[in-house]
Amino acid sequence: MKKSNGQEHLKGSRLHPISLIFFIFKTIKDLLYPLLVFVISTIVRKEINMLWVGGGTLLFLVLLAFISYFTWYRFVYTIEQGSLHVEQGIFVRKKTWISKDRVQAVNTSAGIIHRMLGLVKLSVETAGGKKPEAVLNAITAQESERIRAALLLHKEANNQVDQTRHSSVADEQVVQAASFEEGKAAEGNANSVLVLSTKSDEPQESRVLSIKDLLLFSATSGRVGIIIALFGAAYSQLDDVLDRMFNFRDIISSWLNSHTLNIGIISLLFVAGLLIAWIVAIIFTSLKEYGFTLRQIDDKLIITRGLLEKKQITVPIQSIQAIHLTQNILRRPLGLFSVHVVATGYDEKNGASALMFPLIRSAELPHFLQRFVPLYQVPERWERLEQRALSSFITIPLLLTIAIIIPAIIWIPGSYGWLAVFLPLFVGLSAWLNYKHTAWSLMNSQLSIQYGGFTKHQALIHRKRIQWNRMSQTPFQLRKNLTTISVALASGRSNATFNVRHMPEQAGYELKGWLANSNRQGKLP
């Protein structure tokens, strides 16, 4: 991938004219906060010059339309020799060349406007990129498939050649060791492999998230805290404005003066606020994950989801580095897991893994993995930590939280500072859960690592996918003959690292030796 600001003109295709609306929305989104401040400050100001307001609004709209039109007009792209060339910019021309060898993912999404017009938004990601290198925000579905085929077809062809070579070598060995009739059978098997490797748009495996499971996933997502934090952030930014417009503080004060607060009313208000945040979290999560569908087509996993904005990502199975299972405190009693995939070029925002399927029951999990990613299996047994490791999990976190209590009581106004006395209980429980959950398992060529506090994680890692491993000891671990093993995998934006903390030193050396054998093994099939 190369970028240039040169003067060479690149002729090519333009986006659909509806892109003008998307450019306008993007500009407004980028300027949303200053615009909000300007509008609200103008409204609450006692003296408003309508001429200035009208003239400023008109000038802003004209400039916005001008910039959006020329942004669309000056945005062109073309496909040449399997590479995507994009040229954009009104005054400063930026040219981007994305070679097909660097392309990691070509994903599509479609909002409501896109679907009304039969359009999609296409994003092209490269290996190691922190964001899409090219975004075509409004093209036809046929055009997106043409671009996808031009950028990814060579990889699929290479994969087919590798598979054919493996099959040919295996069949040749069978012919040399068997009789003439068995050789004929092996030749027939080779032909069958070649026929089966022909690409097809029909999914070999598929699974759709039902409405019942969607609601169950949304209700147990644990995103209530995020919604409460958003409400708090919004209130902190708008409390002065609300007070000026509606005398918000006076309304609250008069209500508090007219009602005698007791533990019952406070509890009722707390539960009501929590219930509202929970309902909002369910709505947002359901809209995001609606229609979640996982399909396997040839050597790719295709994930589709979303109601208001329908997104589709394609994950080549060969790019999968590990399977990451999560089980939060709400889903654990129900035996429910979320399945994530750690793959090169794919992640969720700033995380190391992307959602593969939202909700799977523990009894269905082995069969689910066998259908879609047969290289990975759920361990039958785990190796647990010894009792002497418990203090290593608890001691330092408890000391740090105890050191916070006294300053919190002194500096936090009112009696709210005394709430800090509950902090060691919360931290101690989290540390104890970390100790109970930490485990590891070796099974054939798979390393499985379990960890986590209130949310339990399980990482299923094939030995050949490990980029590096490290064994470390702190002075405290050295006294107790404990150690920590860390393994790193390639993922979307950085290495995904998994640790087995405070394991017995002897077990650490055994695991280190098992990992060292990976250098003597062949490539993955």
UniProtKB/TrEMBL annotation:
UniProt keyword terms in alphabetical order: Membrane, Transmembrane, Transmembrane helix
Membrane-spanning intervals of the chain: 20-44, 50-72, 214-235, 263-287, 389-410, 416-435
PANTHER family: UPF0699 TRANSMEMBRANE PROTEIN YDBS, UPF0699 TRANSMEMBRANE PROTEIN YDBT
Full protein name: YdbS-like PH domain-containing protein
Signal peptide as annotated in the record: none
Keyword Transmembrane found: yes
Domain YdbS-like PH: 72-149, 295-348, 435-505
